[in-house]
Specification:
This protein has 3 helices and 12 strands; from the N terminus they run E-E-E-H-E-E-E-H-H-E-E-E-E-E-E. It is mainly β.
């Protein structure tokens, strides 16, 4: 899953994460990426996610347009008798990550249509696009990485700006000091060939947090779904 990923601000990462929790947040995250190929073709990608974080858990869900009911029903029929071994879609399945008391992470993919919670062990994180870092999962951009960046000016309207340069790559972060999340992350090269931007805004909390709606879901291991 690309979730918290593009946001991990491509600044140098620091292994230790001193800050493990922050204020509750309900966020909408919009990702944009542009690359200009050697063939002169400009390729752009956009997608949005919603992120709900509470103390020791984070729910990240891609916003996907619903398929027509008839098509959806046809897909379900096709999977009858095979749903127990079908592979989860790591791109569109919500990810639920909990931080245990010992610091270990419990990462799961949630498949609503099959009503199952799929536990993913750390050796399979790469399969689902998860970096296994609690800092970048909870805060969207690990606060420890900001220590490797240059502060730009003083905080203004509760936002502190940071910048780093590595070779041709420039990374800029606008960090919400009170809310503890990046309002904006941008990375771009000096030749205008690549650009990534992530914009984060606060949204209303759901009436019921999504992980409280999992009663009755089957719990299975990701490894059981591998061929």
């Amino acid at each position: 899953m690309l979730a918290v990923l593009a946001l991990a601000a491509q600044a140098p990462a620091v292994q230790a994460t001193e800050m493990v929790s922050g204020p509750d947040q309900n966020l909408q995250v919009r990702h944009y990426a542009m690359t200009m190929g050697r063939d002169g073709v400009k390729r752009e990608t956009t997608f949005s996610e919603r992120v709900y974080r509470r103390n020791d858990q984070v729910w990240t869900e891609r916003l996907v347009e619903s398929e027509p009911a008839a098509r959806h029903d046809h897909s379900d029929d096709h999977n009858d008798g095979h749903s127990g071994h079908s592979h989860p879609d790591a791109g569109s399945s919500p990810m639920w990550v909990r931080r245990q008391a010992d610091g270990a992470l419990d990462a799961r993919l949630i498949e609503r249509h099959q009503r199952r919670s799929i536990k993913v062990d750390s050796q399979y994180y790469g399969n689902i696009g998860f970096n296994g870092n609690w800092g970048s999962t909870f805060f969207l951009s690990d606060p420890q990485s900001l220590k490797s960046m240059r502060m730009v000016g003083a905080p203004k309207n509760c936002v502190q700006r940071y910048e780093s340069k590595r070779g041709d790559l420039t990374v800029r972060v606008s960090w919400d000091v009170k809310g503890q999340y990046p309002r904006r992350v941008e990375s771009l090269d000096g030749h205008g060939k690549t650009r990534r931007e992530t914009l984060v805004s606060v949204i209303e909390a759901p009436k019921v947090l999504p992980w409280k709606l999992l009663a009755g879901y089957a719990e299975i291991d990701y490894s059981d779904l591998l061929d």
